[in-house]
Specification:
With about 100 residues, the protein is mainly alpha-helical. It is about 90% helix and about 0% strand. Helix 1 crosses helix 3 and helix 2 packs across helix 3. The longest helix is centred in the middle third of the chain and has 68 residues.
């Protein structure tokens, strides 16, 4: 009888241990997935914002190039666009 009781107690303790290990593994997996999802969202949003900035800069450069092609002075371009004259000069120089 003592052996059966001891065996039962051992089985209960061992089951609790296995359940705790499995629960810890589950929590680690959930935490990893959550952290991965957050990192993915942050990276996606950063890439989106960077893409918007690059697209905006390309658009501005195209407009400035068209204004230069029409013969407008850099000062006039600065006045019309609100872009500082130094930045307009830099953009025109980068265009070649």
């Amino acid at each position: 009888m003592a052996n059966a009781d001891l065996r039962y107690a051992y089985d209960v303790v061992e089951k609790d241990r296995r359940d705790a290990v499995a629960h810890d593994a589950y929590l680690r997996k959930e935490a990893y997935q959550e952290a991965y999802q957050e990192a993915y969202q942050e990276a996606f949003q950063k890439a989106y914002r960077d893409g918007e900035k690059k697209g905006e800069k390309k658009g501005i450069c195209k407009i400035i190039a068209n204004m230069v092609a029409k013969g407008l002075s850099l000062q006039d371009i600065s006045d019309m666009t609100g872009i500082p004259l130094a930045d307009v000069r830099t953009l025109v120089a980068q265009m070649g």
